[in-house]
Design brief:
- It comes from Petrotoga miotherma DSM 10691.
- InterPro entries: Glyco_trans_1, Glyco_trans_4-like_N, Glycosyltransferase_grp1.
- Pfam families: Glyco_transf_4, Glycos_transf_1.
- The chain has 17 helices and 14 strands.
- The mean pLDDT is 90.
- An eight-stranded mixed sheet has the order 3-4-2-1-5-6-7-8, with helices on both faces. The chain has a six-stranded parallel sheet with strand order 11-10-9-12-13-14, sandwiched between helices.
- It folds into two domains: 228 residues, Glycogen Phosphorylase B (Rossmann fold, 3-Layer(aba) Sandwich); 175 residues, Glycogen Phosphorylase B (Rossmann fold).
- The chain is globular.
- The longest helix is centred in the C-terminal third of the chain and has 23 residues.
- The chain is of the alpha/beta class and 419 residues long.
- Strand 3 and strand 4 form a beta hairpin.
Length: 419
């Protein structure tokens, strides 16, 4: 098949969205499919110099990345704290990804497209390409926008909420098929679109060969002299939805255990605030490290004894942070702090890969950290369980199997409609 993936992100950008589709694109390409990937130039979690270099190459250009035909569109570099400008950008992305590439797609035969949401506006890009090239599309809903933004008070205005709710309905109604990552997400989307047969679960996936169990002694751990430390890590975005305060409060409770060190790796709008809080609390057992290159991330996990995934209490959507899969793939236990009614705690319990505690409950988190600190055999068992579950259920190969069938299904259905 000739498959088009549409996603706002692609490496060298560091983040769940870029890696998820990169893994899938590589796997589909290995299976003999021609894979096209429509995206922007690198802007997210990259330095300004990298952006400026790509910017010089024109408003649209094609690269070959490990056999993937990468179509890059010039998009603006916007600082994270500029929320209104970033909101406008979502419409700009959708518009430019279609209008800048019309001449390219005129000469291509694409059988099907898979669209990553958010940004939700990309459904419009896929819809326009479907009209022009008769390309059916699957909308892959990874985050429930606008509901997550409403829960976290990013969007408060009733008019804007109504506007995005209407867009959400149109996106779901327009898609030929919708994929979601979990049962509760499926129920939520079905409630919006009122079409149960249209919504299919394809769980999150990971390239299990890229993040693997490895020695604690590596270049990253050597740099920070972690060999004789019990490392509790948090690696990823320090954004509005992530609860960093619970990590600092847990560190305060456990500050008498000199072997335990808390490692916070990443950047985001909460970083500066978190560093100030840690300084005010006089925490000597917390280390902040800037965002690291993608190839260093496996070393960070291998350096860790436990890794954390934390969400604020306000996040009520049943999200599964992708870092959970990375932690499980590395073969170390996870402790998650979030809404216990979501799908992530159920995944951790099903895999027996760690523990989930209520959002904001730093006392419970501290107890679980201490339990694993004092019980090495249990720590190792939970880590092995997580790795095994990834290999058997959440590998990129499993996801590619599912998507191949779904692609064939929507292509066939679309042809029957035209016939």
């Amino acid at each position: 098949m000739n498959i088009l993936l549409i996603n706002n992100y692609f490496p060298p950008e560091i983040g769940a969205a870029s890696h998820l589709y990169y893994y899938l694109a590589k796997e589909l390409q290995k299976r003999g499919h021609d894979v096209y990937y429509l995206t922007g130039i690198p802007r997210y979690n990259v330095d300004k110099e990298t952006y400026e270099e790509y910017k010089k190459r024109g408003k649209v250009f094609i690269e070959n990345e490990e056999g993937i035909k990468l179509i890059r569109v010039k998009l603006p570099y916007i600082e994270r704290h500029k929320f209104i400008r970033r909101g406008i950008e979502h419409f700009e992305i959708a518009y430019k990804m279609f209008h800048y590439t019309k001449s390219i797609f005129k000469g291509l035969r694409i059988d099907v497209s898979l669209v990553y949401s958010p940004p939700l506006t990309l459904y419009w890009t896929a819809k326009k390409l479907r009209v022009k090239g008769h390309i059916p599309f699957i909308l892959n809903v990874q985050d429930l926008f606008p509901q997550e933004a409403i829960d976290s008070n990013i969007i408060k205005n009733s008019f804007i909420i109504k506007f995005f709710k209407n867009m959400e309905f149109r996106a779901y109604e327009t898609a030929d098929l919708i994929t979601v990552s979990s049962q509760k997400n499926k129920e939520f989307v079905e409630e919006v679109c009122k079409e149960t047969k249209k919504v299919v679960i394809v769980e999150h996936w990971i390239d299990e060969n890229e993040i693997t169990p490895g020695p604690k002694e590596n270049a990253f751990s050597n740099k920070f002299n972690f060999h004789n430390k019990f490392v509790v890590s948090f690696a990823g975005t320090l954004g509005k939805l992530q609860d960093i305060r619970i990590i600092l409060n847990s560190a305060k409770l456990l500050e008498d255990y000199k072997e335990i060190v808390f490692l916070i790796v990443g950047d985001g709008i909460k970083k500066e605030e978190s560093e100030k809080i840690a300084e005010k609390m006089k925490l000597k057992n917390v280390i902040f490290v800037p965002l690291q290159p993608k190839n260093i991330y496996p070393q960070i996990l291998n350096s860790s004894d436990i890794s954390l995934a934390t969400l604020e209490k306000e996040v009520e959507t049943p999200t599964i942070p992708s870092k959970i899969l990375s932690i499980m793939s590395a073969g170390i236990p996870i402790i998650a702090s979030m809404n216990l009614n979501g799908d992530a705690p159920k995944l951790i319990e099903k895999a027996n890969a760690g523990y989930a505690v209520p959002a904001g409950d730093y006392k419970s988190m501290s107890k679980k950290i201490l339990l694993l600190f004092k019980n090495k055999e249990l720590k190792e068992e939970l880590g092995k369980n997580g790795r095994k579950y990834i290999e058997e259920h959440l590998s990129v190969k499993t996801a590619a199997d599912k998507y191949e069938k779904l692609f064939q299904e929507v292509i066939k259905t679309r042809k029957l409609r035209h016939f």
